[in-house]
Amino acid sequence: MEIAIPPAPKTFGAPNDPRSVARAMAPPSRFGDKAFEWLTLAMALAVLLLIILTGWQLWRGSSLAIQKFGFHFLTTSTWDPVAEQFGALPFIYGTLVSSLIALFIAVPLSIATAVYLTELAPLWLRQPIVSLIEMLAAIPSVILGLWGIFVMIPWLRDYPFPLLKRLFGWTPFFSGPIYGTSMLAGGIIIAIMILPIITSVSREILRSVPDLQREAAYALGATRWEVTRVAVLSYAKKGLFGSVILGLGRALGETMAVTMVIGNTPQIAASLFKPGYTLASVIANEFTEATTDLYLEALFEIGLVLFGVTILVNLIAQLLLKTMTTTTSATRAVQ
Amino acid sequence: MTMKLSRADNHRWRKVKNALASVTTFVSAALVIAPLGLVFFHLLVNGASSVNWDFFTHLPKPVGEPGGGMVNAIIGSLELLALASVIGIPIGVLGGVYLAEYGTARVNWVLRFVADVLNGVPSITWGVVVYGLVVLRFKGFSAYAGGLALGLIMIPLILRTTEEVILLVPNGYREAALALGVARWKTIVHIVMKTASRGIITGILLALARIGGETAPLLFTAFGNRFWNHNLGEPIAALPLQIFTYAISPYDDWHRQAWAGALVLVTGIFCVNVMVRILTRGRTASVV
Amino acid sequence: MVNLLMANPDPTVVERAEKPTEPLSTAETAPRLTFEVKNLSLWYGEKRAISDVTLDIASNAVTAIIGPSGCGKSTFIRCLNRMHELVPKTRIKGSVLLQGEDLYSSAVDPAIVRRRVGMVFQKSNPFPTMSIGENVVIGLRLNGVRNQKFLNERLETSLRMAALWDEVKDDLHKPGTSLSGGQQQRLCIARALAVQPEVLLMDEPCSALDPIATAKIEELIYELKTQYTIVTVTHNMQQAGRISDYTAFFYLGKLIEFGPTTKIFTNPSERQTEDYITGRFG
Lengths: 335, 288, 282
Description:
The structure holds 3 protein chains of 3 kinds. By secondary structure, chain B is an all-alpha fold. Helices cover 71% and strands 0% of the residues of chain B. Chain B has one domain: MetI-like fold (Orthogonal Bundle), CATH 1.10.3720. By secondary structure, chain C is an alpha/beta fold. In chain C, helix 4 (148-161) packs across helix 6 (181-194) and helix 6 runs parallel beside helix 7. At the A-B interface, helix 2, helix 3, helix 5, helix 6 and helix 7 of A face helix 1, helix 3, helix 4, helix 5 and helix 6 of B.
C-alpha cells in the first residue's frame, strides 16, 4: 500500500493539518446540535400545549353557561333551547347507560377472545383472526352507524327486541313500545366499536404474562384451561381491568355511530327500548343549530364535561396499564 | 354426605371443562369478527351497484333530485388530509424524535403519558376546540379549520408511533456514526431516522387512515359543501361528512349514495392498511 | 476557539504521497507517543469504573488491552475518543493527551476528536439502509465532503487498506448487510479509515467472527500499524500475543501492568498478570 504517513498536526483541527481528508471536511458546529434539540423539544411540548389549550378553550367557551347554571348544570334534566334552560343530566345518563351496556356486552366477548388468541387457539388461526379484528377496528364510526340505521335497527326491531320484551317485559328495563332506535341499540353499536380495542389490549396484557407462570402450572399437571385460569388470568387481573377502563373511555366518547341509532331524545327513562341521548351526540347534532350564545355555551360546557370525564377515565386506564406491560406494546395495541 | 370423585371422574370433568373453555372462547372470537363480515356484506350488496362513473365524477344534485355523485367530497377529503398532514406530520415526527433521543426520564414519561391520554379524547372535542379557535374568530367554516382539527388528532398519534420505532433502532448505529465524528443531529437525521424510515412512514399512513374516516371533528369546522371548494377559507365537503348527511336524510336516493360512499371510503382505508401490511411484512419487531 | 475553525479548503486538491517531516521512529530510538494518559479515573454515576490509570500509547504500534470481563477495558478505550460521554452521568478525572494536546480541554469539540481517533466495534454494524460504497464514505459525506471524485478516491483507498477492495469492487451498490460477518467488520474498518484518523481503536473486533475471518483481520491489523496507531481490546490472550507490540493488563478498573508484549507474556512483573496469563483466573 502506497499511502504515506501524514505527520502529526500541531494543534486540533489546525488549518495547516496536512491530512487531505481533514482539510476536506467542514468544521463541525455545535449550533446544529443545540438547534435540533430545541426544535424537537418544542414539537414534543406540543402535546402539553394541546391539552392545556383544549381545556382552556372549552372553559372559555362555556363561561357564560357555567356562570348561569353553576353546578346544577350537571343535575338538571331539562334541555329546553327555546326556554334557554339547559341541564346535562339526560346526556350524562345516556352516556353512562349506553357505555355500561356496551361494556356488559363487549367485555366478556373481548376477554374471552383474547384468551382464545393467546392461550387456546391453534397457532395457524391466530394471525388471521388478529388481522380481521384489526380490520374491524379500522371501520369508521359513521359507516358502522350507516349499517346500524339500515341493517341493525330493522333487524333488532323485528327479532331480538320483541324476544327480549317477551322474556323480560315485566322488568322496567324492557317495557314499553319498541321503536328500534333506542338506548339499547346505542349500547350495542358502541359494543361493536369497542370490541377491537379491548381485545387487542387484553391480548397484549395476556401475552406479557411470563411463560414461567404457565410452565409452573403445566408442571403441576393442569389442563390448558386451568393454566389459563390460574396462572394467566389472575396474574393479569390488573392489566385486564385497565383494558376494560380503556374500552370505557372509548365508549364514552363514541359519537357518530351512536348518534345515528340512539334516537337523540333528551330523556331519562328506565326502559332500554326508549331513545336516549349522549353527551357526544348532542354536541354533534345541535352544535350547528345553536341559535343563541347561551345555547352554544351550554354545548361547550357539555364538551367540557365530556373532555373532563374521558381524560379522567383514560388517566386511570393508562396508569393501570403501565404497571403491567411495557409502554410500547400497550399503546401499539391502542392504535 | 360427600361423595369422593374417583380420580378418573375428576380428570374427565376437567377435560370437559377444558373443551368447553375452548369452544366458548372460540365462539366469542367468532362473534367479535361477525360484525366485520356483516358490515362488509351489506356495504357490497347495497353500495357496489351505485359505485359508478357518475359517483366519481359528478357533484351532488339538488335536494330530492336523484342521481349525482360525490366527487367533491372525495377530493375534499384528500385536501383535508393534506392540510392535516402539514401540521400533524412535522410536529408528530419531530416530537417523537425528541422523546426517543433526548430529554430526561421524568419529562419524557410525562409527555408520553399526556400523549396517550390525548389519544383517547373523543374526536368531537377537537372540533369544538377548533370551532372556538378558528371558526368563531374568522367567522366561518373552512377547510383550514377542518384540516387543523384533523391535524391535532394526528399529533399525539404520530408522536407515539415515531418514538417507538426510533427506540427500536439499535444503539450500535448511533455509536458507529458518532465515532466517525458526525454531529449528533446529523446522526439522528441521516442515520437513525433513515433506518427507522419505514416504521415512521407506516405510522403516518395508519394515522391518515384513521383520520380519513373521522366525521365528528368536521361537523362544525369543515362543515361540508354541496359544491366545489374554491378557497380553503370556505366550507369544504368530505366523504365521511357526506355519508352522514345522506344517511340521516329522508331520501332513498341519498341513502343509496351513502352506501356507495361508505364502500369507497372503507376501500380507501383498507388499501392503506394493506399497504402498511406490505411495508411491514416480515419485520415484526425490528426496523432493519 | 480559533484553532477549531479551519478555512474551508478546496477539496479537489488531494494531497498524495506527502513526505513526512519527521523521521519515522525506529526500534533504537524511544517510540513516539500518540497518547499520554495520566491518572485517569472514570465514574458511572457513583460507581468507579477506572481507577488512576497512567499509560502511554506508542505510535505506529499495536497496543493490546487485556483483562477479564468487567475490568474496564472497553471503558478505557472509550475515554480515548470521548465516546464515554454518550452515557449520561459519567465523570472523568485525570488527563489524556493526544499528540501532546489535552483531549478534554473545554476548547475541544468531541466531533473533531472522533475524526482523529476512529473506532471499530465488537459487533460489526454497517448502516442497514446503505450500500457498501455509501457505508464507506458516509463519514466523509456527513462531515461535509461533496466532491464526488474525492469521495470515489477515498472509497477505493479505504477499501484497499481494509483488504476488501478486490472482494467488493464490483458490488459496491449492494447493501452493506449482504456481506459475511468478517467482510462486514472489514467494511466497518474501511468506514473508519475513510475519514483518515491517526488512531484506530478496536473494541474486541474479532469476538463475533470465525477463525478464518479473525485471521484475516489480524493480518490487516498487522499491516495497518505502519500507517496508524492501533489500540485493541481483546479477551483472547493468544490474539494479543500474536498481533500486539505492547500489552496492558487491566483488572477491576486498575492498570496492573503495562509493557512490551514479549515481556508481559514471558516474564511479567506482577503476580496477578502472571495468574491471568496462565489462566488461573479469567
